Amino acid sequence: MATSRDPESMPFFLRTSIGFYLLATALGLVLRIFFVAPFGHLVFANALHAHSHTLYFGWGALGIFALAFRRLGAEGRASKAVLGAIAAIAAATFVSFLLSGYSPPSIAISSLSLGVWGWAAATIWRRSRGSTDLDVSFLRAGIVYLVLASLGALTRVALIALQAPTFYKSLAVFAFLHDFAWFFVLSVVGLLIERARAHGLHLDERLLRWQLRLSVPLAWLTFPLGVAGGANGLLGTIASVAAIALVVPAGLGATALWRAGASAPRGGLGAAFRWLAIWLALEAVLSAAGGLGLAGLAVHSRHLAILYLHVLLLGFVTLGLMVSTLSVLGGPLSAGSWLHNGGLSIMALGLAAAGLPAFGLELAPLVPRLGLIVAAFGGAVVIAGGIAWSVGAWRSAAKGEERASLALHGPL
Fold first, then answer.
1. Which end of the chain, N or C, is less surrounded by CB atoms within 10 Å?
2. Which UniProt keywords apply (predicted)?
């Protein structure tokens, strides 16, 4: 049965994951600036892969697994080893991708993560056996999507070996990325349920159970919409219908999160839950828009695709993971939350403006460029939010160590 013991090593890994978040978002800001004023010493593709892999491996995966291990009471050397391996791979992929892009060393290093994640997934599955708690059910569903993502990555390797057409290799890539993103989404919802209970928030678990039941069988079907031409044919029709249908479970989840936020005392936690509801609902609307025929525009417009990814991964996943992380570490939430959500809102408006030419609109060249400047400014505000969260978490850790020292040795 799951427990909620707090292994001593988990705060260290949680603070490490925040460090990776700052590193990745700082590089993301550099990429935003590059769009406005390109400079010659940055290989854009290399930096983009370093940015995305560090967010996936160092921030998302490390933070989720550390919190899940904590929730399930997974202690001991094995848990520390798997978390340490995830952190080491994240650091190595950042350096490798930044220096050499998708080179054989980068592929080899990042491929190690499949085995490590499998190890972590098996730990969660084993420790959660017999539990019927809703938060654990979301964590287990997240593990299912992690396995699907790994199968997508292995399928791509097989297609490369078979020299399959580029379209099918692209489908495999997006199956991996899409299912990995849903591993984040489902796991973060589970972590938020546990934290909402810990803080005594009113959470409508009936709505969340329906969100889980409807999302799990539908979400994996929508990955073809991320590929050029993927919306065509029977596969594209199924993906489009699933994307539209996912509005229902997202609406149920967003309603439950909004109500939980409304039940919280005035302060950062309640506002954060309401923002989580907004980002989850907006992601579903954008996904449904793709199902209604706009996916092709997003595929051909880098800025519209980035807009969607930022709403999903920075809006919902990062905010939800940071709420859970700071709740455990004891750091303040309010200042960083307002900067994060305000900055992301500004960034989203800028990216939307930059992506307007994809709709065939006759616009002055100044409009997209102004959108890029606005997006870069929003990115800077997001970074400020991350710094505020980080400083709060580290100060809280220092105070905790000071209190522990006083408890052991008395005042100096």
1. C
2. Membrane, Transmembrane, Transmembrane helix
